[in-house]
Write a structure and sequence with these properties.
Keywords: Hydrolase, Manganese. It comes from Flexistipes sinusarabici. GO terms for molecular function: adenine deaminase activity. Its cofactor is Mn(2+). The protein has 539 residues and is α/β, with parallel strands linked by helices. It folds into two domains: 248 residues, Alpha-Beta Barrel (TIM Barrel); 188 residues, no CATH class. The protein contains 15 helices and 27 strands. The protein has an eight-stranded mixed sheet, with helices on both faces. β6, α1 and β7 form a beta-alpha-beta unit. α3 runs parallel beside α5. It is globular.
């Protein structure tokens, strides 16, 4: 089957310009770029349209969408994201190697070209309890799989910098296999940053400001500009695309299905960059070519003879990218919906709640320390607060974590920034160990949502002091096999309830899910207690 795309603008990423020509594809491959009009079975009028390689999400945790890999890929591919590199340390922390292999097998049924970053830190640190561990042997085995293109983000920065064997050995094995080594370097600078890079780490996605990102670029790291649900990159940082046109890529990291459908996946990064005045050819390089080459997916990285015909046809005008059609290996997928296929779910993911019904909230060990959150950022502040445990007038609430893998650990602290006036909400998504986390205005309401999560085998629960509502997440307490539109409806209802309860955060559930992540500054709560990230110790 031959198709000729006539009079399209084609990016020349080496010269950073567009040129106009005809593109002939044959049997899923770009056959010719020509000013003539060769025979074709089908002709596509591309006047004033652009043809560009499909977008790539260079770092994503698919679990944050609550979708299985194939369902996630089918959703984002319709928005032009034809490739993703997913680090599934979320599901790995719950179900171990079997969970990662389940994701790898399930992903094969997707329209999207899903590649994998092998989880490197499961668990991230010894300061939280996970349901599984991935040691050196398991990491090495997974790195050898064809789907694996990188060693996942190295989150235990002190361990990497100090040269601990459980980090240096996987890095060395990844180097031998020619895999990328992903980083995670919030707040790193100076000698520590240089040591982190010298250890072999190649990229970072955790910086938000122009200054921090430029510092890391100058240290030799590639950068993924992140636009997730609860985290965003500062506008001025996008100027670095012009300064470092070959070293910057895009990612979402953690983005809910609601935000993907409402705001867009990688196309959101693209349109943000265009609105900020970044030249379109540089934007498309960051959205596609750079990441595809970086991960060795070179046959998709350009529009030229011999390349795979997976690309986007779009209108680029008025600082906006508007998709007209999307092709995967020469086939138009714009109106194509693949059949759902069932992949057997491991037993450990079907029964991941090893915790009894809770009857009381754990006692608070440090009544002076309070976590303060900031909308749109994962970085929290350590606030000293002497007010009473619940002070709704001053937005002082309780944050609780309940370990769900059978050890019985529980912890509580004060938190401000959610602004709830009644009720509580809870989640079995609590990065990265995914214990049960809840925030609320009373012990009774917190217990209500926590026990709902337990009873449903995982999920997202909200209680407004009258009504209880939950979205069950039956696969590892992280994802569900339900259809995307069903999940969308339930998520919308949950978020509306939380807003009516007084919380106006951009992504309240996403923000809550990161309050237990002990590798992002400054103060977090794990199942073992309140944790000072800067000094890597409990308070």
């Amino acid at each position: 089957m031959k198709t000729l795309f006539e009079n399209v603008f084609i990016p020349d990423f080496d010269k950073d310009v567009f040129f106009k020509s005809n593109v002939l594809i044959n049997n899923g491959v770009v056959a010719e770029i020509t000013d003539s009009k060769p025979y074709a079975d089908e002709y596509y009028n591309g006047d004033n349209l652009y043809i560009t390689p499909g977008f790539i999400d260079c770092h994503v945790h698919i679990e944050s969408s609550h979708l299985t890999p194939s369902a996630f890929g089918n959703v984002v591919s319709k928005q032009g994201t034809l490739h993703v590199v997913t680090d599934n340390h979320e599901i790995a922390n719950v179900g171990g190697m079997g969970a990662v292999e389940y994701f790898m097998n399930e992903a094969k049924h997707s329209l999207c070209n899903i590649k994998f970053a092998v989880p490197s830190c499961v668990p991230a640190t010894p300061f939280a309890t996970s349901g599984a561990e991935l040691g050196i042997d398991k990491i090495s085995s997974l790195l050898k799989r064809e789907e694996a293109v990188s060693l996942g983000e190295m989150m235990n920065n002190p361990g990497v910098i100090q040269g601990e064997e459980k980090f240096t050995v996987p890095i060395a094995k990844a180097k031998v296999l020619g895999k990328v080594i992903n980083g995670h370097a919030p707040g790193l600078s100076g000698d520590d940053l240089l040591k982190y890079v010298a250890a072999g780490v190649m990229d970072d996605h955790e910086s938000e400001s122009y200054h921090d990102i430029k510092t890391k670029l100058e240290a030799g790291l590639k950068i993924f500009l992140r636009e997730g649900s609860a985290e965003h990159t500062d506008n001025e940082a996008y100027e670095l695309i012009k300064e470092y046109p070959d070293d910057i890529m895009f990612c979402t990291d953690d983005k809910s299905l609601n935000h993907i459908m409402r705001n867009g996946h990688i196309i959101y990064n693209v349109n943000k960059a265009l609105r900020l005045g970044i030249p379109p050819v540089n934007v498309l390089k960051a959205a596609g070519r750079n990441g595809l080459k970086y991960y060795g997916l070179t046959s998709y990285a350009e529009i030229r003879p011999g390349m795979n015909a997976s690309f986007i046809i779009a209108d680029i005008s008025n600082n906006a990218f508007k998709i007209k059609d999307i092709y995967v290996s020469g086939k138009n997928i714009s109106h194509y919906s693949p059949e759902n296929r069932n992949t057997p779910v491991p037993e450990k993911l079907q029964n991941s709640m090893n915790i009894a019904t809770q009857s009381e909230i754990p006692q608070m060990k440090n009544e002076q320390a309070c976590i303060r959150i900031k909308d749109g950022s994962l970085i929290t502040e350590h606030l000293v607060d002497s007010s009473k445990t619940y002070d709704l007038k001053n937005d002082i609430l309780k944050l609780c974590v309940f370990e769900r893998y059978g050890h019985g650990n529980r912890a509580t602290c004060k938190i401000t920034g959610f602004n709830l006036k009644k009720g509580a909400f809870a989640s079995s998504i609590a990065h990265d160990c995914h214990n049960i986390i809840a925030v609320g205005t009373s012990d009774e309401s917190i217990l209500k949502v926590v026990n709902s999560v337990i009873d449903n085998g995982g999920g997202l629960a909200v209680f407004d002091d009258k009504n209880l509502f939950i979205l069950p997440l039956e696969i590892g307490g992280l994802v569900t096999s339900k259809a995307p539109h069903t999940i969308m409806e339930k998520l919308k209802h949950i978020n509306e309830l939380i807003t009516k309860m007084g919380c106006y955060l951009t992504d309240p559930l996403g923000t809550l899910s990161f309050m237990a992540l002990e590798v992002i500054p400054h103060l977090k709560l794990t199942d073992k207690g309140l944790f000072d990230v800067d000094n890597f110790r409990y308070l």
